[in-house]
UniProtKB/TrEMBL annotation:
PROSITE patterns per record: GNAT
EC number: 2.3.1.-
Pfam families: Acetyltransf_7, HATPase_c_2
Family matches, as InterPro entries: Acyl_CoA_acyltransferase, Anti-sigma-factor_SerPK, GNAT_dom, HATPase_C_sf, HATPase_dom
Molecular-function GO terms, alphabetical: acyltransferase activity
Swiss-Prot/TrEMBL keywords: Acyltransferase, Kinase, Serine/threonine-protein kinase, Transferase
Domain of life: Bacteria
Record protein name field: GNAT family N-acetyltransferase
Residue span, N-acetyltransferase domain: 138-281
EC top class named in words: transferase
Amino acid sequence: MNGAGVGVTLPGLECAAGLARAYVRDVLGAGHPALDDVRTCVNEAFANAVEHTASGRGGRVEVSVVDEGVRVRAEVADDGAGGARPRLCDDLLAENGRGMRIIDALASEWGVRADGVRSVVWMRFAGTGRTYDRGMDLEPRPARPEDWPVLPGIEQSGDALFTPLGIVFPPGPMVVEMMIEKRAEILVAGDPPVGFAAVEEVDGAVHLEQISVHTDHVRKGIGGRLLKEVLRRAAEAGSPGVSLLTFRDVPWNGPWYAAHGFEELPRERWGLGLRAHWDAEVGAGLHELGPRVVMWAEL
């Protein structure tokens, strides 16, 4: 549906979050490129309202989504918390505040405004990528040899986002350079590419080695599109699931993948390939930079 969406008022119950997610799908439609991100963020804001405000003590939560074509607007209004407002914790790696960190990672813009005693979490997302990015076709596609020289620069740009967290990667070749050398499967978005996903087979399943989006194009749903295509192709190929290794607490790593259906994979379920990947990371000093985790999405 394009144009104005009609909001819904739901009871402040955990079980009503499913109704909020269904509402988002009804407004945007199953094929909308921003659906996963909008639905995830609305779900997190709804859960926050139920847990931390009067909405969860017999109150209600109002949800509205509007598809404007070039962007999607979403709002979640609670019944208030005595003047306290939802906020993003200054410590990006803190254990609390996971929901707001997910919103911060997925939405192109977001904020909180007061409406009397109530708080309204508002969010903006990229709509149709073709319009938003000045005609650039962002549908994921297999990388061509002429794309390869661009990809290390994308990864390097993305790595710079970790610096404010005190995460500086050890010197060495870019991950995508090693994947190109191995002739692994690489998907790209944009022509020339502005993002990529590199996958290979590990323990008889698809393993996502890297997703990276150039910093000039983050928060536009490109990473989500790439991940969705990785999962689609993996299912089509008959893979039982998709595995990956990532930082547990960095908002656009572990929490972002969790928002897209990945769960931590217990060590006893690791195959020899995943164990080798883990050991290689330890040897390279990657685990000294922050907690790492193996994640898995069942297909």
